[in-house]
Design a protein that fits this description.
Helix 12 packs across helix 13. The protein folds into two domains: 123 residues, Enolase-like, domain 1, CATH 3.30.390; 268 residues, Alpha-Beta Barrel (TIM Barrel). It is globular, with a radius of gyration of 21 Å. The protein is α/β, with parallel strands linked by helices. Helices cover 39% and strands 20% of the residues. The protein contains 13 helices and 16 strands. Strands 4-5-8-12-13-14-15-16 form an eight-stranded mixed β-barrel, surrounded by seven helices. The chain has a three-stranded antiparallel beta sheet with strand order 1-2-3. A three-stranded antiparallel beta sheet has the order 9-10-11. The structure holds 2-phosphoglycolic acid.
């Protein structure tokens, strides 16, 4: 007999991400017409151990079209998903993994598995007529993870300039979304006015952050500190400053080319020293190239009490890479991106390992993201420490911040 939770249909189509590139949207529909839908996001600054997207590489959309991926879903995958229960996420994800068999999911595509896996996960909460953050909650202890919000962008999100990728702020003290977002608005606008007045405003990056001209990392952090103080907030005590260096993007053969300077890892460390000690930077993501784990270890040894060292490209939400980094004491936290490993089950396994070892978890969107807001639900359900989805502008970013406001309202009533 057919069970109501069993999948009866899988739909897919081409839609577009926030950079205007094609991507995949899928829908999972059960026997009782419960429904889950997800769009695959896409990174610009990707680690080498991320799962591989299947793209057409033909003359449509600069090679980024997804016709092949849609055909794989329709012909190869969907027939194997029909009849599975949407409530059995491990069974669903294992079916995807067994259909692919490669380490980086290059056969059926990490973009394909990501959209399918998330759609099924969302279908299960819809099937149970429950909010995703409640249905998938690990413990029913609900709190809002600290929002890490981009103020300045750069690097691969600004046409591959040799600069740090993100300058962000996050609350150190407990603040409601309402109070924190109030401060973020004020700080962002204070900064923008300064840039415009000083003719340093160049434009916006892929995640909506400000892109300055003629400002280096010290001048940028100086403006952030000044603007926080002008809004009567104490930087480094009430609101923290973080950077995503994304160093692999400006590294080659042991040399980091930052602006027009060539630096070795020790000289790059001297820059972090100033940022930490003079500019209140208390969280640094991917400070060195993804293959230079010994520099991560040295930085953590030297500055571990003052700043958190976070791995993104270093870990790629990969269980074994996290295990290795924990064993080597290389990081205090990791960035979690579902489409780095390609399924919900593998993401959850990595998060569990992080929590068992007191490693901070930061659930993150991609630079090519979408209007969907499921990340806000997942960050609450999975009790991640922080959530990082870009700037405080543009709908693919504010869709997530706004959903956190709604979730906070619901939590306050539970
Ligand atoms: P990416 O950027 O999606 O290009 O990797 C996201 C981030 O890490 O800020």
């Amino acid at each position: 007999m057919k069970n109501k939770s069993h999948i009866k249909k899988v739909n897919c189509r081409r839609v577009f991400d926030s950079r205007g590139n094609p991507t995949i949207e899928v829908e999972i529909i059960t026997e009782n017409d419960s429904f889950g839908k997800a769009i695959s996001p896409s990174g610009a600054s990707t680690g080498t151990n991320e799962v591989i997207e299947v793209r057409d590489n033909d003359n449509m959309f600069g090679g980024k079209d997804v016709k092949k991926a849609l055909e794989i879903i329709n012909k190869k995958i969907a027939p194997n998903l029909i009849g599975l229960s949407c409530e059995d996420q491990n069974g669903f994800d294992n079916t995807l993994i067994s259909l692919d068999k490669s380490v980086l999911k290059e056969n059926i595509g990490g973009n394909v598995t990501t959209a399918l896996s998330i759609a099924n996960y969302l279908c299960a909460s819809n099937f149970n007529a429950e909010h995703t953050f409640i249905y998938h909650s690990e413990s029913n202890k609900f709190f809002i993870p600290k929002p890490e919000i981009q103020i300045f962008g750069g690097g691969a999100h600004a046409n591959k300039n040799n600069t740090f990728q993100d300058f962000l702020i996050y609350p150190i003290v407990d603040l409601s979304c309402e109070d924190y977002f109030d401060s973020v608005y004020n700080i962002t606008n204070t900064i923008k006015k300064k840039l415009v007045n000083n003719q340093n405003f160049f434009g916006y990056c892929d995640e909506g952050g400000l892109y300055p001209n003629n400002l280096d990392q010290f001048q940028i952090c100086d403006i952030i500190n000044e603007s926080i103080i002008e809004n009567k907030i104490i930087p480094g005590k009430e609101i923290g400053i973080s950077i995503d260096v994304a160093a692999s993007n400006f590294h080659s053969n042991g040399i980091y080319t930052l602006y027009d300077k060539e630096l070795d890892s020790k000289e790059l460390t001297n820059i972090f020293d100033i940022l930490i000690n003079k500019f209140n930077v208390s969280l640094i993501e991917d400070p060195y190239d993804e293959n230079d784990i010994s520099s991560f270890i040295a930085l953590k040894n030297q500055y571990g009490l003052l700043t958190s060292i976070i791995g993104d490209d270093l870990i790629c939400t990969n269980y074994s890479l996290l295990e290795n980094a924990i064993q080597k004491k290389a990081i205090d936290g990791l960035i979690v991106k579902i489409n780095q490993c390609g399924t919900i089950s593998e993401t959850l396994k990595t998060i569990k390992l992080a929590k068992e070892n007191n490693i901070k978890t930061i659930l993150s969107a991609r630079s090519g993201d979408t209007e969907e807001n499921f990340l806000s639900h997942l960050a609450v359900a999975w009790e991640t420490d922080m959530i990082k989805v870009g700037s405080f502008a543009r709908s693919e970013r504010t869709s997530k911040w706004n959903e956190l406001v709604r979730i906070e309202e619901k939590i306050n009533k539970i």
